[in-house]
Amino acid sequence: MFFERHEGGERALLVHLEGLDEQTREDADEFLELVRSAGADVAGFVTVTRHHASPRFLIGAGKVEELAALVAAEQADVVIFNHTLTPSQERNLEREFKCRVIDRTGLILDIFAQRARTHEGKLQVELAQLEHLSTRLVRGWTHLERQKGGIGLRGPGETQLETDRRLLRARIKQITKRLEKVRSQREQARRGRRRAEIPVVSLVGYTNAGKSTLFNRLTESAVYAADQLFATLDPTLRRIELPDIGPVIVADTVGFIRHLPHKLVEAFRATLEESSQADLLLHVVDAADPERQANIEQVHLVLGEIGADQLPMLDVYNKIDLLEAVEPNVQSDESGCPERVWLSAQQGQGMDLLGRAIAERLGEDMLQQQVVLGHDQGRLRAQFYAAGAVLGEAMTEDGRQQLELRLPRSDFNRLLKRAGLQPEQFLEQHVLQ
């Protein structure tokens, strides 16, 4: 990696801000989970009440002195803020604390750097890291930022800072080009699936909602799943068979989080496109999380950013084994269409209900019809059989084939167009009255 990450196990002093407005406030418990996921040892947790952010330190000067003494007493290696810091605030705090200071974005980037496994995932993490670092390059190079003039003091043409920025821009350009190639390859794969009429079901949801555990249950796979934030970074696709539907591609994707840094959304766009191009989204919700509703809203915000907020969605309320007196069940809307499934992926409870609900949602546009074929349409009859669409067959009095069909309407239209027929006209002439 171009931007090296410090090893885990460091002593970290955590600073959480209270009193800020609802839009910028973060969750303290989630902050602790993030720090543990990064592998840091918590040396102390300090809550600071602040109604207005200080331009210099974010927090007040008196609190900075108090924290500096605590850093020295606890021999902390790093101070982590549960908030976004500007580059100048980060530098000012490092000068006072005499140790590294990182903000919430830097912490999430560190976790992503640890978890990325595939070449694509590593490229996306590095891109996000470099873009984050580019605004903080002054750190460590302040003495070289400006060259002095005069005889014997003129510089070589550019400062060290300018050299670093140029190298960063070149590396960012190189990674972006590689990711464009990955995006192109993914789009080709998606086009292939669309041509084969294979529907895609994508799992989305807040981080640690149980998506990978559910994915493993659905697909009988062994994808890494753990009780930690961002256990999954790299998208995984598996093929399963559903009754009445046939082959379906299931995609496991990266979890979302409150105030997910915009740079990460941009960097992981190629991965998140698996969600934006899906036929059905399974929104996995941790039913036992007290912040359940806030997490649902955050997921909808991110889906809006990647253009997936208008896709068909089935809510999956997971971890009901942690709730009292909740049995696996399916909730449907007024028309009987499944809207929400309650289950436990860990215990395997309600997985049969989920399978039926997915099949029902994907089969909303299924055509079930009795048609009568002419004597010259034997090839079309063979194609219906090859597609597994024939439920039954009988002979009419005049010797024509009467077929009972059930198949996706898109498959029906494709087969007829291949035979040079118009679907609407065919149904008018060949449907059994």
Low-confidence stretches: 1-8, 139-155
Instruction: Supply Rg.
Output: 28 Å
Q: End-to-end distance, in Å?
A: 68 Å
* Average pLDDT level: 78
Order of helices and strands: EHEHEHEHHHEHEEHHEHEEEHEHEEHH
Going across the major beta sheet, what is the strand order? Answer: 6-7-5-8-9-11-10
Shape: elongated
Structural class: alpha/beta
Largest sheet: 7 strands, mixed
The CATH fourth-level homologous superfamily of the largest domain: P-loop containing nucleotide triphosphate hydrolases
Percentage of helical residues?
40-55%
The CATH architecture of the largest domain can be named as 3-Layer(aba) Sandwich
CATH-assigned fold name of the largest domain: Rossmann fold
How much of the polypeptide forms β-strand, as a percent range? Answer: 15-25%
CATH class of the largest domain: Alpha Beta
Helical element count? 14
Number of domains: 3
Task: Summarize this entry quickly.
With 433 residues, this protein is an alpha/beta fold.
What does this molecule look like?
The longest helix is centred in the middle third of the chain and has 36 residues, at 160-195. The chain is elongated and about 95 Å long. The protein contains 14 helices and 14 strands. The strands form 3 sheets. A 7-stranded mixed sheet has the order 6-7-5-8-9-11-10, sandwiched between helices. The protein has a 4-stranded parallel sheet with strand order 2-1-3-4, with helices on both faces. A 3-stranded antiparallel sheet has the order 12-14-13. The chain has 433 residues and is an alpha/beta fold. This is GTPase HflX. Its main location: cytoplasm.
